Amino acid sequence: MGRAPCCDKATVKKGPWSPEEDAKLKAYIDENGTGGNWIALPQKIGLKRCGKSCRLRWLNYLRPNIKHGDFTEEEEHIICSLYISIGSRWSIIAAQLPGRTDNDIKNYWNTKLKKKLLGKRAPHGHSLAAADVVEAEQQLNPSAGASYDMPVPGGFEERSASKLGFGSAAGEAAGVASTVEMSSASMVGGGFGYGHVDELYDFLYSKQLAAAGAFQGGVPPLPELQCPDGGAVVGADEKFSTWMASCDHYVPTTGGQQLQLQGGNSMNLQDFVLGYDQ
DNA sequence: AAGTGGCTCAACCGCAGGCGG
DNA sequence: ACCGCCTGCGGTTGAGCCACT
Fold it and tell me: Which stretches make up the HTH myb-type domain (predicted)?
């Protein structure tokens, strides 16, 4: 059985909203709220619009305290960090940026941040070809793509969500908010392909510093992975892999690479990087 | 000045999940 | 337990704008 259409497409108006339509919608919602029924709302106020369209217009444009215009560096950082951690969960990311809508963030990511970030990761002195962008994006956020050759015991995304408190609708906002408040950098590294973002490297390095005392003998210094201008050095991936392999405390097992912790405990490298050791 | 290509962003589309009957 | 409706979400589209030739 087919899905019932949300509205009569023959009589519904599409395209850009006129100031009059905006005014009608805003006035009604200001006075009465949405009434919990977007489908019925346009009929009530005499708009030839689909309920979904009204909802979108309200959420993305008419709602009070909506911020438009350029994103701040801090906002960019939060978006990047969260994207790396949880992927394209725009609504969750938007919840961390008051006044920003998921649509805004999605657009900003797709048109600017993605290019900015991927461009930064391009091999030094080279620009990215179209195919490279696709591949690089998959590496940047494997959870968004099909290929992902790093072992992900238990499913990374699910575990991230669980750790971050995404289990419930209420938990989503609250959980992420508190995590970000503590340290947005602490969330970085979720999309643990082979560390294709600056933040991941930064994060790993901070982890390494923090952990140095916890490991017997410490860990080898993380190799230089970036050029002074922020571009990745040639062979950054290989260097990172070599660095991992050079750590005495990484004991390969069938379940993935394990860290040998002081006191006899061991844990999955990925869990460690993701902060499940807390 | 006109044509063209790239970029931006508002809006649409379709799917998944929640919820009530 | 099942079904249908509604909402919310993420992906995609396309009109308008802008820069470049």
Answer: 9-62, 63-117
Domain boundaries, chain A: 19-62, 73-187
Task: Specify the nucleotide whose C1' lies closest to residue A61 (CA).
Answer: B10
CA–C1' gap, A16 and B2, in angstroms? 28
Q: What would the two tokens of residue A167 be?
A: 């289990």
0.70 surpassed by pTM: no
DSSP of A70-108, one letter per residue?
PPPHHHHHHHHHHHHHH-S-HHHHHHTSTT--HHHHHHH
**CA-CA distance, A225 to A31, in Å (whole number)?**
56
Chain C bases near protein Cβ (<7 Å): 4-12
- Cα gap A243→A47, rounded to integer Å: 62
CA of A50, C1' of C5: distance in angstroms: 15
CA A125 from centroid of its chain's CA atoms:
27
Task: Judge whether residue A255 has pLDDT over 60.
Answer: no
